[in-house]
Amino acid sequence: MKRFITLLLLLASATNYAQKSIDPTTDDIALAKELRLKYAKSDVALLFSKEVVTFDINAGNVTVNNNVKERLMNINHRADIHKYEFYDSQSSIENFSLKYRNDKTANFYVRDEFHKSNDLFFADSRVKYMTVDFPVQGYTYNYELDKKYKDVKYFTSIYFQDEYPIIKKQITLTVPDWLNLDIKEFNFEGYTIKKDVVKEGKNTIYTYTLENAEPMSEDKQAPGPSLVYPHVLLIAKSFTKNSKQITLFSETADLYKWYKSLVDGIQENPAALKDKVKELTANAKTDDEKIKNIYYWVQDNIRYIAFEDGLAGYRPEASQNVFAKRYGDCKGMANLTRQMLKEAGFDARLTWIGTKHIGYNYSIPSLSVDNHMICTLFKDGKKYFLDGTEKYNSLGEYAERIQGKEVMIEDGDKYIIEKVPVAASAQNKETYTGVFHIDNESLVGTISGNMLGESRASFLYGYNSIKNDRKENSLQYYLSHGDNNFAVSNVVTSDLANRDSNLTLQYNATLKNKVSSFDNEIYVDLDYEQEFSEYDFKERKTDFEFDYKREYESVTTLQIPAGYKVTRLPEAFKIANDTYAINVSYEQKGNDILYKKHFLVKSATIKKADFVNWNASVTSLKNLYNDQITLTKQ
Amino acid sequence: MRIVTLTLLLCGTITFAQDKAEVKELFWGKDDPAKKNITVPEKWKKESAVVIYKNENYDYHKYGTSVTYISSTRKRIKLQDQASVKEFSEFSFRERFFSNKAYGWKRGTNTIGIKVIKPDGTEKEIDVDAEAITTDQTKKIAIPNLEVGDIIDFYFYTKEPFKSFDAFGFDPVETTVADSYPIMDMKLTLKTENDFFINFNTYNGAPELMEVSPEGSSERRYELVANDVEKNDFPRWFYPLVELPCYKFQVYFARSGKFEESAGGFLPKKENIIKKNVSTDDVLAYYDGRFKPYGNLGDIKTYLKEHTFTSDEEKVKQVYYYTRHQYYTRFVEAFVVKEAKIMYPWEYYGMPVFFNSEEEFINHFMAFLKDQKLDYDIIVATPRNNGPIKDLLLKTNIEVLLRVNTQNPVYLQFFTPYTNADQVKFLIENSDAYALKVSKGKKVSDIETIKLPVSTHKDNRSERKLDVTFSADFNTVNLIRESSLYGHLKDADQDDKMYFFDYVAEDYAKYGTKSLLDYVKNKKKKEQYTNEFDALKNKLKEKQKKEFKESIESEFDFTVEDHTLEVTATGRFGAGTPFSYNEKFTVKDKLVKKAGANYVLEVGKLIGEQVNIEEKDKKRANNIYQSYPRAYNEEVIITIPDGYTVSGLEKLNKKVENATGGFVSTATLTGNKLTVKATKYYATYYEPAANWKDITAFIDAAYQFTQEKILLKKN
Lengths: 634, 715
Fold this sequence. Notes:
The structure holds 2 protein chains of 2 kinds. Chain A is an alpha+beta fold.
């Protein structure tokens, strides 16, 4: 039997029944109702959230005290939530508590566990959390958190928004004169954030206030938070103690210096790679081939396993260890690629990069700037960026997530800042051709397809991750989208291990139930893909990011059956703007009907500002897909 | 990722270290039969992975009341693609844990060993202690240097000590010999000594368990050996344990004859006998005295006094529904408020009697039947997916019910809020069962094999009426649907669609009882509890609304809007009382395709998504096992808009019927109303594989119906 209440989180805490004295006031209830109208998808709202940040010096480090006070109100009928806070080896939670409205402590059981995530094999971060119930609408709790950071360099940013709507958010930073702190403001545009700066004694007090902050969106395929949400980035440049100025991350060179010190601490033993490099390069006729053999070997044979363990989260694992274990994180894979290439006689270097997910560049000396590491190969005056964590990435092609992003390349005591080249959509182009004739109520014909760049890489990765004994069925299923009316047979493909050549697919297709005959007329639904019709952003709050820039072209030919003439073709749909272009049309050419589709998404992102246009286009597209060809008996 | 639920403390004591060495020797020592095996047969070269050797061991030892239970699994697997490498690339386990069996008195340990064998035969053992990282109580290992073409050879060895002062039954094992990968060789061993009793048997052509006890030893040893086992592939509508080579076993610990009695299983007479089958005599002996008429009949007697019945049959059924309320649904609200921490409810009920188990139900009902001098039998049945009752081996496979021998016998089972008194659970329907004759309402005197009732597709049916109209621009289709479900088709749907608040009030009214909050006298408290309980119910109703929408969307396989659902009858008092609800919803930009001035309506989709058998599944070697016969009756009434005529109706007339079931559809036009009727029914519980073509014939017809379209032609 179904549990009687499946809505509730599993409650493991000691039972404490609510008391009358802490029931919401009439005003609270009225407020909750009002807020719920505004934030219809939220159960809880923060009536206020005050964050106070102060600084100290301890053991030669600048430490940070972060105090948070919040009032949480249930704006739905009832709410059951987890209140949680993360910490790690660089931070500690001193106070994590909830109080009732009457200021009495609510003794919810606090759990303290390792942070577990499917994406991370191991992280040193831990989470404290409590399971909190709000029995009625308007019920409130007062929350307080005191958290300490051992080193200011790990306290990088403060965001104004939360998973819950916030009625009033205040961030106060008390910066002592001995600390040179740069406060950078991001994404304030479009928000009314009040800022006050006052000097009080030996401190400068910065106060930021934002009212009516929407909850952070849960949209998938969205830009990283640093690109979207208002926040302040804190850069502690230096501090003065006993009249002595100590530099922290004052400029990018300081960041590099710290990174470099970590890299210099790796005990490398390239000799362990010698035999493998020899094996991989022995039969290679050209440098290109040698590089590919090494780069592809790393892609194919080193399993990506994410570790985040204190300093080790910033220091690459020694290449010989990654090689021996055949697994590593991005830094380990970059380091192995570098050492193997060096072993083969090339100039290869470690390279820090912030992926597309991150909204900063290397003008900012902060640990928030990057989140990834790759390897740069210097060859014949050119630089190649090799990302060992990619799968089926062809040398010289770059994944969307690193394109156009700044890289910091090691260069002895100096560093080089460059940008990863940006490729056009055409690099990832997919092309399909179908030729069909009508056989009873079916369309029978052949389809051939062609994939390049990231469309090819993602196809190859998907295909090669499937169990051997299921590959054939899975490929058929993929090609037919699991549509029972779409029978696929005699599939011939190019080599599905080759990431450099054109990927081609050819197969026979029978599309059932696409032809309807009524009286003297035949209606033909010639569309079997309905490309892009699923990208409807009516409910979306944030920009949509495609996995990569898209270009897609298809031509479907229908042979007009003998004795019939075309009496109606659906109207074409065409749009072109700076963001995207869509051109879908039908035309009769002799005894054939040509159904042409062309889609171009110029950058991989559809901005929120373009949603109105985009959604209108998708509606037109759906209407067109819903339309049919009319053939009439002559 | 392979997660094995196995706890921790880093204090690796010397004894544990010694144990670890011994464990390793056990699997990978000089007697390892698979030591040199690194090649797999040609026929399995295209498999994702091949199990070269699988070894499962169950070891039961005791010293007085202290039991040491050791279970272990070793697998040596050739990994032939990236998918299998990924699957075996990470392990996680708990090194130490407390037994949850009987009385855990000292920690149990898990020992794990992993080695990787390269294609050239070189072996590398993973240093588990060095490689593992620890998060809370779990250890995790990422396997180093594991590549396609390698063999991973690992064992999990669990030593679980506990104390048992009386009798203890270990978890039963029921599994197919085959696994998700083909197996070259497998060996299962059981090791026991006195005071351990084994029920073990193999079925459907699986190899027999053989005794291999060493001579002159008090230890008993048994083995099941199999080789060349193809991987499992479970088709639709299939009961693997009924058809595939499989084995079942359960071990009991009982220190004396008295405990053997109370063990709760069908123990062999002696420890040196492996019990392979539970006979009718065993069942008779076991159940003699196991159930006894017991329970306070006060409530029932009061109920009887206040009601009259047309027959004994009617009386039994009504008392059943009464007890379902009195000892079950009356307390549902209490459980809810307790879980939601709204209040402590139990003080309000005086001495609440709530049935927690089948046994409480049976005993109480027996007391009632005895009191009423109604003849009844205790029925011992086994769900059909376990195989026939004649092959019964495990107590856990048994369901017990009562048969009241009224003119039409009434079968009664421990209830859920929805159980009907006139239909038994579908999994035991149409199966052979044992009837234990109860003489004079007391003693079990005899046993006979009976057939449990069957139900037909006429009993288990849905009746749906869908009213369809269009907006002027044909972009919106407005739908109103009335649904009534009968028999077993109600079972899952009632549970999916109803929350406690949808049925408790009905019971309070019917039986004159009070809802929980009616018991609360304190005005302030009552107000508070009411507010909180209402808040909870409102929240659940919002959730329910979402579930309703998701449910209909999965039924039709398209999105709907503005969906409302109202339950009009709960269907909780008899298989023939329908579970009914009315829905209203709209569908936008679907179902209607433009064709110039005309419109093509995908009328077939209005009967809901139908099963489609993929081409590769059209051939079938396994027999077909259905939960129960059933019929889906759909009536779609479409209002043809003014100015349009309809054509293409001929395609909507389909008829495929055979002994296994059928699909019949018709379309008739009366005025501007087009009525489409479709019935799909499955006539039987079971069909041999040879009849698969008959089943697919009507399934295909129903699927094809969903693809049919009609033309709405502008006049």
